Amino acid sequence: MQLEKLITDFKAYLDRIITLSQISSILSFDSETIAPDGSLQARAKRAGFLEVEMYNLQTSDTMNDFLDALKPHLPTLDKQMQATYRLAKKSYDEGTKIPKEKVQAYAELTEESTAVWAKARKENDFKAFVPYLKRVIAMKREFLDLRADEIPAGGQPYDVFLNDFEEGMTIKKYDDFFEKLKAVVVPLIKQVAASKKKIETDFLKAKVDVADQRKISDMVSDKIGYDINRGYIGEAAHPFCNNSGKTDVRITTRYREFDFMSSLYSILHECGHAIYEQNIGDDIAETALGGGTSSGIHESQSRFYENVIGRSLAYWEYIAGDLKALLPKEFANYTPQQFFEAANESKPSLIRVEADELTYGLHVIIRYEIEKMIFAGEVEVDDLPMLWNKKYQEYLGVTPPSDEDGVMQDIHWSLGLFGYFPTYALGSAYAAQLLYYMGKEMDVDALIRKGEFATITKWLEEKIHIHGSTYTPNELMEVSFGEQLDGNYYAKYLKDKFTALYQL
Ligand code: ZN
């Protein structure tokens, strides 16, 4: 009886944090979409207020008391309660290990360094960014010292950051994963570059009015299974998915008049994130477990809808007719095969966010290898452009003409987000692994060709969505498939797809 009351009180306490985070999420959607520029300061104040309130609840003595009282009961608690405890303990530990003044100083530093990065990038002046990047790295090292107890046995400090963004991932696991990928993809890219196959892409540059692109967004998102009754499609410079519980999952896209595919694939990508959130089990919705479990697993859902479904020939066989009916003047003469090929053209490039499915992983590997070297003390900040360019030449056969399109292209390092990049590759890798297991139970291409996405989503719902954050990524893969992440599926998926496409 006493335990029951303890659990009820604990859940009620957590509910305050969850509600605050949902409010904060709605405000951030507002900020990213329609809020007036003039309200910037007022919005920052509100966001900061909520941030502090949540932090205080997560790290309070009350929280500590709950965690202490629950600890002896852990072995007898059910799976969901154990997971709830684990997540609360994690954020308590994270919040209390680093003194508040340091957190504050770090927030100020990264804000400043991000502004400096933006300017330095525009002016192609890496030297101006150097002192700030050095300070950010120095502070990250200080944090690592305070979190030394989190370094896994036989591991390195950088492991702590990897675990922050994808629980259970380590240098050892990533090394194994990326080596498998590199071994297949690096030679494959060279073969593709040497292939005689010509892919026509010019027709994708046809002008498509924003009004028509909105119709495409509505059609594509509706057909794929995004529930607009619990959603909304907005516009933002950088598309994202924003959730405040499973009944309010909003997405955004951006429309470019001469590149309608950009929005089409953004929509499919964000729908993948959104469908995950909309399908969280009712028993855990609106609780601490009521969101996707990790960046990597989340990204696996977005990449599944965007790439596995959206960039397949079967999908174009399904959707090309509708697109041609909507825009006959622009597209009537093109076949599903032509759309499919154009949507998958692969070329080594400089910019990660614009990379195709085949080359994308290498952009991530380069950043991962460099970060690993930074935190192992194997490279100085001043030498990063040289190292960056050398790796781009080695893996992708291209050299950035400037640091703006090279080492300074991503915002992450200025924000201190080390250990985050590798999760971008996990999404595609998990998606390929899921496709393999799905394919054992159903003819995935046939379902896509007929537009029967509900059958596909139902399968993903049972294996992934319904569990929310009950399991860590590794546990979830074990529970649903009996194995953890394995890079071989992704390597094989890319090899099969691009060997066929380029007739190698
Ligand atoms: Zn995403």
Describe this structure in words.
A hairpin with a 5-residue loop joins strand 2 (241-243) and strand 3. A three-stranded mixed sheet has the order 1-3-2, with helices on both faces. The chain has helices at residues 2-33, 40-58, 61-70, 79-97, 100-122, 126-146, 158-165, 171-194, 210-224, 260-278, 295-309, 313-326, 328-331, 336-343, 357-375, 384-396, 421-441, 444-450, 453-463, 473-481, 487-501, and strands at residues 231-235, 241-243, 249-253. The chain contains 21 helices and three strands. The chain folds into two domains: 3-150; 172-501, Neurolysin, domain 3. Helices cover 65% and strands 3% of the residues. The protein is mainly alpha-helical and 504 residues long. The termini are far apart. The model has no long low-confidence stretch (mean pLDDT 96). Bound molecules: zinc ion (ZN). The site of zinc ion has 4 residues, from helix 10 and helix 11.
